[in-house]
Structure formats: C-alpha cells, structure tokens
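Q: My labmate handed me this sequence with no annotations at all. I'd like to see what the chain might look like in three dimensions before we decide whether it's worth expressing. Could you predict it?
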Amino acid sequence: MTNIDADRAALLQLIKDQAIVHGKVTLSSGKEADYYVDLRRISLSGEAAPLVGRVMRDLTSDFDYVAVGGLTLGADPVATSMLHAAAAAGERVDAFVVRKAGKAHGLQQRIEGPSIKGRRVLVVEDTTTTGASPLEAVAACREEGAEVVGVATIADRATGSKEKIEAEGLTYVSAFSMEDLGLA
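A: Here is what I predict for the chain of 184 residues:
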C-alpha cells in the first residue's frame, strides 16, 4: 500500500467513525436527509486535517492551480489543509476564502487572501449536495478575474452537483462517494 492509499484509508475510517451523524436533518440545500456528513469534524481535526490535505492534493494532482479555496465555511479548512500539505511537500499553494457577501467595511472584499486575479485556482468544498456553494464560489472567482480550473470535494452526495458543475464547463472530482462512506 502506498502512503497515499494509507492516507485515503485512514481518512475514510475517520469520516465513518467521527463525521456521519444518523437522524433527520435539513441540509443547507433545504432538502431533508436521514443522515448528515459533518466533515468539519474532520477538516478541523488535528488528526484528520493533514490527511485531508494530502488526499485532496493527490485527488487534484492533474489540475494546474496556484491557489485553492471556496465558499466559507466548508471550503476554508479544506483549502488550508491543502496549503499546509503543499508546504510540507516543498511546494506552494495559496488559499483564499470566498465570503457569502462582500464586506461593508475595510477593503470591502468578497475574496480574502492573496489576490487571485489572473491566477489559476481550484474551488474546493467539504461536502457537495446541490453544487450551489461551489458554483457561487466559481462565479465570485471569475468576477475577481481568476481562471477556475475545476471543483473538488471531499464527499459528493450524488444528488446532481456533478452534473451542474460540469454543465459550467468545469471538471468535478470527489475523494469519496456515498458508497465509500457506506451511505448508499
């Protein structure tokens, strides 16, 4: 087993053990589900975050990007995990945060972090249901003058997001499916 295979297996087990909550829940999309995949329990964990960074960097190794980010809050720890994984490998990837709305004070920026204007960026998310959050981030990045090279998520709920994102001309990848998580 390669190191990345071991990382994927360890991350998958942590997700199964710590992030899947069973019971009725309303998702951000407004849809109801019998379970919730709370990946912030993973992406903000000192044990799991390094795995997230390495697995997501491996997942997106065919993409050409210099910065990674997405809509706050789900994307933020994923992007910073990838930034740290790149640094640990002797490489550089910047991270950025897309606000849900522009700030009314200070510089009034919608996107925080190093400038992404004219740069190739990857939009990330922890869990994707409808594709609305990453597509909002894609639109904000394009408005800022960035070239979005794709969208990557830790877990895809297989509820239409892939098709919506690909309809925008973007490649969409996920580290884990609902089958992988034992939820399909």
